[in-house]
């Protein structure tokens, strides 16, 4: 039985996964006017988590994150649908979005749109689904 | 300027053909994995030169994403070749 | 702008998601899922009354104007179908409380049924053809998981075939939407209808309409039904009942909507083709129902006969035939659920599904026997039960449209369907009682109540046909006159 010697991979993964997570969040937030958005942000995040799954095993990642990823997926879709319902409660059609144009101190003139909340829901749903699939195909060491 | 870009694109295309030859012909699996990784780098170079060509900034995220995914997939392939499985459920 | 239209879609979606988060509390699952289906029925009744007064109810998602945004359209046909879906799924859920078993309940059974209901209601209520594809996919993916839930060998084998056939049909659906969009430039059904009326159904539009017919025929079981008997007999009785009552009807609804709203200009080609397909499937379904001696096979071949009859009524394309078709869809959803649940109870109690091995159940389970008998009579079209009105109107419609052979095939296959179901009844329920109470594999406690509700409903639907007739007639009138639909969706704006 080979003893695993993963020192190089683990060191690289510790640094690279943080970079990948940051890039995923950047992709997510630039989705309104540039290429990006919820779907690809969620998938890049799942790719970072896959790197952690590869270098460490599923059990340690799961114990350190303490999240049931199926529930995360359901919570994501729930946030997205409740965004639409909030528009309904306020008297407009389902899924009507609103934009607020304000001046933030550091960033200057920005647009805050309610579509971002919808996109957060989409990103969480994608992360939950992708990580559930990867965790299901992990192998048992015989 | 445009001529240099077109020439470099042509040379990269020749490299891609050579890599595909290695992908098809490689007598062992690590050869093929190496060829796939190199194909990823060549696609990144093509995209970068193309970005200069059309003077747009739209493809930068594509370049970064292809790099990330190519790295992760090469690591997964390497673990698979070494051990017979890619992701471990519980290691000691 | 009527926000009530989106409620039948988001109520089961939100309930299913909340149940998926709290996975371990089964009582909460049962309570919330039953509440969701009952509230959908109430919303559908409200919608029906609004449509009867005001015409089709529209909701533009995101406040984007038609035809640039997605419209949700509740006209009378959709509202009737949503109401029937809510009632049928409520009864199936009541049956599932006692029969599905703890193991499957813990594996997200109730959220999956609610997601299936989301897809079905979305398909009924949408006015945009790509949204129809999306809701079809939601419904299909939920059904893929439901058909393999529990993981027995038979289920896994049949789910493989089911998934493969539906994958191909979804691919063809996408290809035909792509062709349609390339030719006509829009995805909104009302806008497409206006453009086809302007341009005439010429050139490539006829093959594209036939492509749509192929896609929905695979889904509904119209001549391309070879995946149906295996796939509907593999899962447990409740899931088989939900599939038989809902999924094929969504395919039939899609055919009716596309060929009465968009492609109605050439009835000699398209509608007579639908009539020929309906006639052949009725004959093949009847031969299958008569030939087998296995309860599940007979019931699934009866599904094929009914789909043929519904589309035969549609192919005649006059007021009487369409009224009969709409009436028969409602009756068929109720009665299919009834006989599938009753047949499932018989299999559960005796442990086998072969008719030759069962006999004399009526001594021990008289209610079950008589309710199955009511279902048989209703399906065969015996007055005063609900099948009679539907079959009379469909046959009248086909005779009026000079499709005498189609009406004749409809009557002949009704006779053969009656024979096949009476075969089950007489062999399983009459005869010497071989089964003693100790030999039974399970009890029927809690299983007879939902079957009783469905039997009472088919009585009510038959006796009270007069009261429902005004709604059904409005539905048929809306199908024959697309101007009502287009006017409601595009409003008074000039058509872009």
Key attributes of the depicted protein:
heterotrimer, B: 92 residues, mainly alpha, 3 helices, C: 496 residues, two-stranded antiparallel sheet, globular
Q: Structural class of the helices, strands and pairings of chain A?
A: mainly alpha
Strand content of chain A: 5-15%
Task: Give the strand order of the largest sheet of chain A, numbering strands 1, 2, ... along the chain.
Answer: 1-2
- The shape of chain A, in one word, is flat
Poorly predicted runs of chain B are none
Q: Percent of residues of chain A in helical segments?
A: 55-70%
Largest Cβ-defined interface: A-B, 29 and 20 residues
* Oligomeric assembly: heterotrimer
Distance between the termini of chain A: 10 Å
Percentage of residues in helical conformation of chain B: over 70%
* Largest sheet, strands/sense/barrel of chain B: none
- Supply Rg of chain A: 19 Å
Broad shape of chain B: flat
Straight-line N-to-C gap of chain B:
57 Å
SSE succession of chain B: HHH
The tally of helices of chain B reads: 3
What is the N-to-C order of secondary-structure elements of chain A (H for helix, E for strand)? HHHHEEH
Describe what this molecule looks like in 3D.
The complex is a heterotrimer of chains A (142), B (92) and C (496). Chain A is mainly α. Chain A is built from 5 helices and 2 strands. Chain A has one domain (7-136). Chain A is flat. The N and C termini of chain B lie far apart (57 Å). Chain C has a domain at 267-479. In chain C, 75% of the residues lie in helices and 2% in strands. Chain C has a two-stranded antiparallel ribbon. In chain C, α9 runs antiparallel to α11 (237-261) and α12 (270-291) packs parallel to α17. Classes of the chains: A mainly alpha (142), B mainly alpha (92), C mainly alpha (496). At the A-B interface, α1, α2 and α3 of A face α3 of B.
